Each structure stands twice: as structure tokens, then as C-alpha cells.
């Protein structure tokens, strides 16, 4: 969650959202008509770097495909059919990836019973107040508001502790920008009566949670993730743990699916938050086959062995661990996983090999462990550090473990989900930079200034009008087309498609295209700033500390 000098690193608290102008798909919106989507499997903006996920750096992502391969981010296309009435940023591939978003989509889909029946889900994002909000931030604002409109509890936060620790801003500067971010969020439709706005420095619950999470993290881990060293200020490290608390804050009331809209550079925050959520749990639920614990690779081998052997055995003559060891030696190639699991099987000898769900004691109190034993129906076996059940599937076991944990004072956190949006190309080409005014449009720019910036923007046009008509424009490499796809076309897929097809077909020339985009931008800024003025009174009525009590 940062607002760096180039694209504002959208993170845990996304602060900027642009996108690299990826190669465009021509197959339209999955399942229907729509504009070509930005590819989630490749494509890059001019000057894009190789994959480097640095939450406070200035890197872009040169190849989004590598995020799937290297970091386990899933393609959003895979979950898109599960999303009720998806936002146009989802339909057009601007939101290109996710972690575990299916559980959030499922919560919204299952609770589609009307506006008075909120979804059992939450959305949170935040903003580091280091400058004016701009069109990149608007994407994140829109994502929060879209989820809120679909019944999710919405949280918007000002990451002021991070701005002070990581960027060195004074509290007066932070206060000035804080007001501006909140006005734009409210002007775009955030409902404060049905959501929560807060700043890190005045939210005691977040700070208390950060303290507890800090007991599960250490310097070596933060150094490995964030490249901290002996010169790193303690407050800087503390701001990371505070971000983890922000991510999990919506679950303090109750465990529930929670999505954090982020840029891909912020994924290290999401991975750490998911790890910490698991470490805070009383119980870990896994699947097993014998009394000993195995890793995922070993579990796969056990599953294959059991499937191969079970047909030849019955209740009177069950599959034994020794049988599985022999089968693996004969049928599976040598590997570390095979050798490890065979060693465990040999030690277990005649113990029956049976599928079971296992509750591992991670941090449970004695009372919680005993309560879980009593809550498990059917056949079970109790060991010193875990409980095996033979009559329960994993989903039911997860729900039971969470229920017992919460009843006995635990958090019961669900792993937080995330969606990832592309970085926006700067209007001058290459990276969007807060320090280069011509490369971005601030939501506070005069409408005439916005008009002029679009008119001066780099395009994906050919060298001459004749070549443009003959070869067509390169909309996939055009910052101006991005403006249409990300903002100016709004929810109108037909219009976005029309602009794209006219461009690549040679019918649309850059001068006319930029004039239309400039007029639309001018109108957007004029309307937005009118709504910001209307939001002034609403903001002043909110229970929000616009002036920090802290001093530099």
C-alpha cells in the first residue's frame, strides 16, 4: 500500500491504479458482446520492467503471465462466470487476476435477495495520502463502491502511519491529502452510512490487532519479503504489520470472505496477510491417511496408493501402511517425497491406511481443544496434537473448527482474498508518474487542464493519416484507448468496442479520437468536482478525525 513516485503502488491500500497497455484480446467479453479485453497472459507498456513485486518500488509488471506462474495468482477469467453482474473492469480484463476470489463471489451470489439482505462478505482498500487522488485511484474507488452496492460491508482507510513512516510526510501534509481522498471517494458514491472510513493512526482496534499479529512475524521474515536490513527504521517495519491488521480488520466482528483490491506489486502484502491469518488460527484442518502428518506432495502419493489398493481390501482386511509402502516402492519413481512417506509408512507398519480429516492444534487453548473433541460427531481418534475424524468432509470440518475457535475467544480468520488490476500507462507513454504532471490526470485538475492533457497524450496511431487508414491504429498500445476502456466508456461495452474497432480498422484517426476523449474527460472532471463540493458537508458531518492529534 503505497503511493510511489511512478504509479502509486496500489496495495493493501491501493493508492494508484493504472495499467500497462497489454495486448488486447479480440474475443470480447467472455459469454457475450463487449470490448476487447486487455490480456491477462502477456503484454506490457513501454518501459515496463520484468516481474518485480515491490510494494514501495516504482516497477511495473512486464509480463502478467509470469504472475500466474511464479506467484500463484489465478486468472480472473476463471472466476468471472461466478461473479454476479461483474463490473466493467472485470469484463474488460483490467482486473486480470485474483487470489481466492471465488469465496467472495459465492457470498455475494448466495445473498442476492435484495438491498436489505447484505452479502456476508467485506471489501477493504486504502490510500496513502502522499499526493492528490488521480484517475488511477478512481479504479480502486470504483471497486470498493461496486462491492458495497452488492451488499458487501465496505471499508476505506487512510494509511497515514505508512505515509509518515515510509514516505516521511508531515502530519499537516497527510491531513491535507486525507480530506481530498475522502471527498473523491464520497463523490464517486461510497455510502458512509453503510460502510466505515478510518485512518490507521486513530483506530485503536487496528493498532491492537497489529500488536497481536506482530507476535507471529519476525525480522528475518520481513527482511526476506521486503528487503529490510539493519538500517530500516522500526516504524517502517511496524507499518507493515499495521497493513496486515488493516487487511484482517473487517473480520474482527466475524470471520467472513474479504476482498482487497490491489495492484500486482502489492501481492507480497497479501501473501504475508494470508500467512498471518493462518498462524493466528487455533486449528489447521488437513486431510490425511494415517496417524502421522505429511506434506502436500506426500499426501498425493498416499492418495494414489490407497486408491490402487482399496479395491482388494475390505473392513476385515484393511489396507495397511506397510502395503502402501510396498506399492509406492514398486509403482512410483524415486523422489524425496516418496522416500519421506515410505519411511513414515514403514514406521507405522500394520496401522490401517484410511482417508480422514485432521484437526491440528496450532494455538488452541486446552478448553477449545476439549470443546472440539466434544463437537465432532461420529468416529474419531484423539492424539496429543491432533484429532482425526472419519465421518466429516473438509468443508464441514473447517466450519466446525472456526465455530469452536470463535466461541472460545479466537479470531477464526478466513484467508483474505484479493483481486489484481493492471497498471495504467502514462499519458506521455511509459510509466505514469506523480512527479510528471503531464503523465497523469488528477481528480483535482481543472476540467480544461484535463482536456489539454488528453489532447497532448501519446497515441498508438501510425505515422500518417494515410497509413492509419490503411493499417489501422494500434489501440492495444495506446494510452488514450486505455482512458476509454478504464474510465471514459463507463459501463458501455458497446461504446468501448466501437472505439477499438474503429481504431484498428482505420476509420478513427487520432486527432478526432483524442478530441472526443478530451471532451469526455473534461465533462467527467467537471461533474466529479461538483460532486466533491457536495460531499464537503457530508464529510464534515462524519465521525472522522480530519486533523491528526499527532505532531512531527
Automatic annotation (TrEMBL):
<dbReference type="GO" id="GO:0005737">
    <property type="term" value="C:cytoplasm"/>
</dbReference>
<dbReference type="GO" id="GO:0005524">
    <property type="term" value="F:ATP binding"/>
</dbReference>
<feature type="region of interest" description="Disordered">
    <location>
        <begin position="454"/>
        <end position="473"/>
    </location>
</feature>
<keyword id="KW-0436">Ligase</keyword>
<feature type="compositionally biased region" description="Basic and acidic residues">
    <location>
        <begin position="1"/>
        <end position="10"/>
    </location>
</feature>
<keyword id="KW-0067">ATP-binding</keyword>
<dbReference type="Pfam" id="PF00579">
    <property type="entry name" value="tRNA-synt_1b"/>
</dbReference>
<feature type="compositionally biased region" description="Basic and acidic residues">
    <location>
        <begin position="463"/>
        <end position="472"/>
    </location>
</feature>
<feature type="compositionally biased region" description="Acidic residues">
    <location>
        <begin position="535"/>
        <end position="546"/>
    </location>
</feature>
<feature type="region of interest" description="Disordered">
    <location>
        <begin position="531"/>
        <end position="552"/>
    </location>
</feature>
<dbReference type="GO" id="GO:0004830">
    <property type="term" value="F:tryptophan-tRNA ligase activity"/>
</dbReference>
<dbReference type="InterPro" id="IPR020653">
    <property type="entry name" value="Tryptophan-tRNA-ligase_arc"/>
</dbReference>
<comment type="function">
    <text>Catalyzes the attachment of tryptophan to tRNA(Trp).</text>
</comment>
<feature type="short sequence motif" description="'KMSKS' region">
    <location>
        <begin position="431"/>
        <end position="435"/>
    </location>
</feature>
<feature type="region of interest" description="Disordered">
    <location>
        <begin position="1"/>
        <end position="44"/>
    </location>
</feature>
<keyword id="KW-0648">Protein biosynthesis</keyword>
<protein>
    <recommendedName>
        <fullName>Tryptophan--tRNA ligase</fullName>
        <ecNumber>6.1.1.2</ecNumber>
    </recommendedName>
</protein>
<keyword id="KW-0030">Aminoacyl-tRNA synthetase</keyword>
<dbReference type="GO" id="GO:0006436">
    <property type="term" value="P:tryptophanyl-tRNA aminoacylation"/>
</dbReference>
<dbReference type="InterPro" id="IPR002306">
    <property type="entry name" value="Trp-tRNA-ligase"/>
</dbReference>
<dbReference type="InterPro" id="IPR014729">
    <property type="entry name" value="Rossmann-like_a/b/a_fold"/>
</dbReference>
<feature type="compositionally biased region" description="Low complexity">
    <location>
        <begin position="12"/>
        <end position="21"/>
    </location>
</feature>
<feature type="short sequence motif" description="'HIGH' region">
    <location>
        <begin position="129"/>
        <end position="137"/>
    </location>
</feature>
<comment type="similarity">
    <text>Belongs to the class-I aminoacyl-tRNA synthetase family.</text>
</comment>
<dbReference type="InterPro" id="IPR002305">
    <property type="entry name" value="aa-tRNA-synth_Ic"/>
</dbReference>
<keyword id="KW-0547">Nucleotide-binding</keyword>
<keyword id="KW-0963">Cytoplasm</keyword>
